[in-house]
Amino acid sequence: MRLLQVLVPGEKRDDALRVLEAEGFDYVRTSECSDGIDAELVTFPVPTQAVDHVLTSLREVGIEDEFIIVSSIETARTPRIEELEDRFVSGQEEDDSISREEIRTKALNMTPGRVTYYVMTLLSAVVATAGLLLDSPAIVVGSMVIAPQVSAALTGTVGLVLNDRQMFGDGVLSLVRGLFVAIVGAFAFAWVIRTGAIVPVTIDITAITQVQNRISLGFLALVVGICAGAAGAFGLATAIPVSLVGVMIAVALIPAASAVGIGLAWGEIGVALGAFVLLAVNATSILLAGLTVFWYLGYRPAGWEPGSLRANVSSDRTATLAIMLLVGIVVLGGAGMVLAQHVAFQNAVNGEVRTVLAEDSYAELELTEVRTEFEDGGMVSDETEVTVVVRRPADTAYPALPSDLERALEERVDRPLSVIIEFTERTRAPAAVGAGA
Asked: Are 271 and 285 in contact (CB under 8 A)?
C-alpha cells in the first residue's frame, strides 16, 4: 500500500479532483498558501500497483512532477479502498509493477556507501577464491550471499531505461570498479596462498571442478547471465524482494572474477583469459537482459510518447542507447565467436577421443570424461591441454594410449595439444561361496 501526496495548483484543482473521483480514490485536501501560492496538498492511499496508473492520469490533465511524495504504509481504511484493491490487486487491472518514480528511488536506495560496497566486494572475492581452491560449492555460494553487485547492476540498468545518464554512469562504473576490486583481491589472496605454500605450488588449478566451471564460456553460462539480469529487473520492478535476486547476479559475476585472480596468481594466462571472457559476457548479459525486461514492463524515459518514434528521438537518448548497444554487440559478438570456436574444438576432441578408444586394442577401456582447457585460438598459448579420464581393468597398462590420442587429436584440430590421461581402476568383487560348498 502507498500513500500519495500531490501538490495541485489552484487552476488545475478541478481537473485533478475530477480524475481522482473518476478513478474511485478517496482523498483529503489541505490548503497550501506558503510563498503566496494558491495550491492544495491532496493526500490519498492507493494500492502499490495503482501508483503509476494514477500519476499518469494526473499528468494527462497537467499535474507536473514538481511535488509528489510516494510513501509506504501498512494499511488504509477508506470508503472505497476495498474496491481499489479488488480492481488493482486481484482484478482485471492486476499488475505487480511499481511506478517509474518508485523504481528509480528503489534502485538508488539499494546502493550502499562506497566503503561498504568495496569492502563487501573484497570479502566476497576472498571467500569465493577460498571456495574455488577448496573445490567447495558451499563456500562459493556463501561468497555470493555477501556480494553487493546487484545494486550497481540494477542501478545502471534503471538509469539506462529511464534515460538518467548520471544514474546509468554511476551504476556501470560501480559495477566495473567492483569487479576490478574483486579480481585484484582474488589475485592478492591467491598469490599469498600460493607463495605461502598453504596449498601445493604444483597444484593444477584447471583440475579443480569449481575452477573449471568458471574458465570456459558456454551456452549454459550465457543463460545464467541472461536469467540473472531478467530476474533482477523483475524483482526490482515488482513487489517481489530482490535479496535472493542479488545472489543470482553474484553467481554470474563473483566466482568468475575470482577465477581471473586465481589464474593470474598461478601464472595461467589461459585460465585468466577464459574467466575474464565469461565475466565480461555475464556482466553485459545482465545489463541487456535487465533493459529488455524493464522495457517489456512498460518503463520509459520521462516525456516518452508512445507510437511516435520521431518525437522520442533525442541526442541524449540515442547517444546513451548507441553506446550500450555498441558495447553489447562487441562483447556478445566477440563472445559468440569465442563460444563457437570453443564448442567446435570440444566437439572435435570428443569425437576423436571416442574414435581412438573404439579401436580393438582399447576395447576394455570405458570413457568417463573429457576436459578441455579454454581454447584461445593461440592468442596466449600455442598448446592446449586436454584431459581424458578412462576406466580400465585393474592392473592393466596402456602405455601407447597417450601418444595415440595426442597424435590423433593434433591431426584432427591441426594444432599442438598436451594430452593427460587419468585412469580409474575397474574391479569386480569376488563371487560369494555358497554355504553348502
From this structure: no
